[in-house]
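Lab notebook, bench 4. Still working through the backlog of constructs that have no structural model yet. Next entry is a single chain of 304 residues. Request: give me the C-alpha cells for it.
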Amino acid sequence: MMRKLFAMLMAAVLLMAVGTGLAETAEELKVASPGGAPGLALAVLAAENPDLYTFVAAEAITAEFGSGNADLIIAPVNAGAKLYRAGKSTYKLGAVVTWGNLFFASQKENFALEDMNGAAVTLFGEGTLNAALALHVLEQKGIVPASVEYLAGAANTQTLLLSDENAIVMTAEPALTAASLKNERVTGIALNDLLKEVTGYDGFPQAGLFIKAETLETRPDAVKDMLDRIAESAALCDTDVDRVAEAAAQLELLPNAKVASLAIPRCAVRFVSAAEAREQIETTAAIDLSQFGGAVPADDFYYE
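Model written out:
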C-alpha cells in the first residue's frame, strides 16, 4: 500500500514538473515582429496570447536587436545577418518564415513582363535587398527599363499604381490585394515566379526568425518548444487561411479579414529551419553581398 502511494505521489510530482515546463516554454518567451506579411507566421499565437508578442513598424524592427528585449525577433534575413557580422547582434537565425511577397504591378491591359522594356519603372526601398533582387531579375530576363525610380515603401508605390493608369511599380502583399479591390484593372507579376526561372528556387529568404544567444544558452528547451509552436502557426497560412485572416485583422497586422484572406496565399509564409534554408540564403546573398554585410553568413550565424 505504501509503495503504491509513493508511486502515485511520484507520478503527481512528475506531472507537475512537466506541466510547469510546458507553461514556461509556452508562455514566457517574448517575440517581436513587424506587422504585415512577416507577422502572419505569429498571428494565431499572438491573438491567443497578445501580451508576449510585440508588433512594430518595419523600419523600427532592427532596433529590437540592440535592445535585447525580445527572446525571438522576426526581421529581414539580410538585416539580421548584417548586424551579426558587424558584432551588433547576438541573435542567431533559427528559421526563415517568409519567402517573398513582392510583385510588379500595373493597370495596363494584359500586363506582362515585356511591358517594362523601355518603360519607366518605380520600385520601393532604394538600396535594399528587395530592390536588388528586382533589378537582378529584370537584368537576367533581358528587360531594360527606360528609367528606374524609387519611392519609400509599398504603400507609396500602391498610391502611384492607383493614381496613374500607365504606371508600372513594384509593390507587395497585402498592398497589391488592397489595390486590386479598389481597381479591378490592377494585376501583378510575382517576383517569386521570375526568381524561380532565374535561380531555380521558390522565392527568396525574406523574413527570418532570430533567437537571442542568451536565451539559447539558458533556456534551450523553451526555444525548441517555441520554434515548434511558430512552425505550426505558420503552417496555418496554408491549411486554415480564414483563421489566420481573422487573427491578422484582430491584431491589425493587415487592413481587414477580407484583404487578409485574399493576400495570405500570396505572402509565401513557410517555416523552414535555418539549416535547411542555408543554401538558398547563400545563393541570395551572392546576388548582392553588400546586403549581407559583404559576405555570406558565417557558420555560427545559424542555429541548428
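Notes after review: DSSP finds 14 helices and eleven strands in the chain. The mean pLDDT is 91. Flag for follow-up if needed.
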